[in-house]
Specification:
mainly alpha, single chain, Growth Hormone, Chain: A
């Protein structure tokens, strides 16, 4: 990210550091705010839908990052990225919910290995691509891979989703949590 920020015209080291921190942190700040919303929607509409939303949204935003003209546009796109991100958490939840119990540990381990491998190998490949093909090409290539993840998720993932009925919960006079109907604790 700091190299791309320099490519966008910020050359003083202190300014590059400031923008790199803001641009990198903005995604995670917004993601922390909207993640509960996406989680609630996953509980209501299914995990596959969230996987599709995240992969397509990130593909579009990363593609647009390749065409950013200044750090302000990059910052805005990273904020938007925070709102649509969540592919890895959605895939973990989907795998955990869909995999038979006897294979869940293996499936989640493989998913974790893939995520860590991508974190380790991705910057290496991205650095090589940036060196030989240009900085903007890395964003375009990444967006193509994210779009392929969207296509694979859309066509090849089968989810057997049944929304759970939520029990009514309320608090009694003294703050004790009650669950109706069939509440076993006294609602004082």
């Amino acid at each position: 990210m700091p190299l791309y920020i320099e490519h966008l015209g910020v050359h003083q080291t202190a300014e590059v550091e400031k923008w790199a921190g803001l641009i990198f942190g903005a995604t995670f700040l917004i993601s922390a705010i909207v993640s509960p919303i996406w989680g609630a929607m996953a509980d209501k509409h299914g995990r596959k839908l969230m996987l599709i939303r995240a992969s397509l949204g990130m593909a579009i935003v990363v593609f647009l990052m390749g065409f950013a003209q200044n750090v302000y546009e990059l910052f805005a796109l990273r904020l938007i990225m925070g709102t649509v991100a969540g592919f890895i958490p959605a895939s973990i939840i989907l795998v955990a919910a869909q995999t038979p119990k006897e294979h869940a540990g293996w499936a989640l381990g493989m998913l974790s290995t893939g995520g860590i491998s991508g974190s380790l190998i991705g910057p290496l490949i991205g650095g090589l691509l940036a060196e030989y093909l240009g900085m903007r090409t890395v964003f375009i290539d990444t967006s193509i891979l994210l779009f392929l993840a969207f296509v694979a998720s859309f066509f090849f993932i089968k989810e057997h989703f049944v929304p759970r009925r939520r029990s009514r919960r309320h608090f009694g006079r003294f703050g004790a949590l009650c669950q109706a109907p069939g509440c076993s604790s006294p609602c004082l």
